[in-house]
C-alpha cells in the first residue's frame, strides 16, 4: 500500500507521538509498504535538507504549546502530492491542522481515513488561560467533530476507547497499543555511562523519571515523596530526564526540600541515548495519570527495569505480576512501593516479562495496524458500493 501519515508532530520534535509515528513508519516499510509523512516545518530542520518521503508544510508555533507546530496552509498542495503518490489510505495522527488536511485529502481522493487518538486533552486544559476558557465539553465537541466520517479510530489503550465511547464516537474503534523496537533497549557496550557523566556512585539506588517535564505529569508528587524515601535510603538519587514548563518549579521544589544534591535534572537528551538512562537506573517511577498509554513504562520494562506508576486501568493490567513492578493510588502507597522496589529491583523471572513485551513489540504493532487498514478498505468499498446501489434504485 501507499500510506500517508498526517501529523503536526514529527522528529526532531521529542514526544511520544513522534516516536509512535517513527516506529509505525519503520514497521510498515519493513512489510514492504510505501510510507509518506505529511507534517509541519520545524526550525531545527534546514529548508534544503533532504528527508526521504517527508513533506513539510508551512507552520507556526501552537498557542500555549510553543514547542508544537500548526500548519497554516498546504491543503491543495497536500492533495496534489497525495494524487501523485497514489495514496491508498490516509492515517491521521492529530486532530488539528495536518489531521484536518488529511481528512480533506482522503475524502477528495475517495480513500479510507484512519485516525490515532493520542492525547487525552482533558488533562491539558489548564494550558489555555488556566482552564478558564476550554472545558471538557469543548473537548467532547471537538473530538466528535473530528471523528465524524472516519473509517476507523486507533485507541492506544482501554482508557482511550472508554473516553471516546463516552463521547459518543461512532466510527469503528480498535485498541492497538503503540509498539516499541525491543532491540533498541538492549544494553550495548558503547552506550553512554550515565552514572559516570552525572557523578552518581555505581552502587547508589536510583529512580528515573523520563517524560516531558510538564505539570500534568505530576512529577511534583515524586519529588515530594523522594524526601521521605531518603530517610530510609539516604544514598538514593532521583534523576528527572526531559524538559518542559514545570522544570524550574521542580528545581525550586527540590531546593526548598533540601534534596537538590540528590535530585538530578538532565534536561532534554538525545533520543539515541534514552536506553542508556534506563539501564543506569534501578527503578522507573511516574505519578502521572494523564497517559493515554505510557510508552516510557514499556521502554523501561524492555530495558529490564521494574516500574512503579500511578494506578489506572491500563497500568493495573500491565502490572498484574509483581515481578514487573506495581501501581499505587495514594501518596503513602507510592513511597512504600518505591522503597520496596528499590530494594528488590531485579527481575528474576523473565517469562511474564517476555510475554508482556511480545504483545507491545513494534512488529506486533505494525501487523495490527495493517490488519485495521485492510478492514477499513473492505468496509469503505462495501459502504460506497451500497450507497451507489441505493442511488441507482
Give a verbal description of the structure.
The protein is of the alpha/beta class. It has two domains: 2-179 and 362-391, Rossmann fold, CATH 3.40.50; 182-356, Glycogen Phosphorylase B (Rossmann fold). It contains 14 helices and 15 strands. Strands 3-2-1-6-7-8-9 form a seven-stranded parallel beta sheet, sandwiched between helices. A six-stranded parallel beta sheet has the order 12-11-10-13-14-15, sandwiched between helices. It is globular and about 75 Å long. The mean pLDDT is 92.
> Which CATH C-level class of the largest domain is it?
Alpha Beta
Overall number of domains: 2
Number of strands: 15
From the N-terminal CA to the C-terminal CA, the straight-line distance is: 34 Å
Give the CATH topology of the largest domain.
Rossmann fold
Radius of gyration: 22 Å
Give short descriptive properties of this protein.
Rossmann fold, 7-stranded parallel sheet, single chain, alpha/beta, 6-stranded parallel sheet, 393 residues, globular, 14 helices
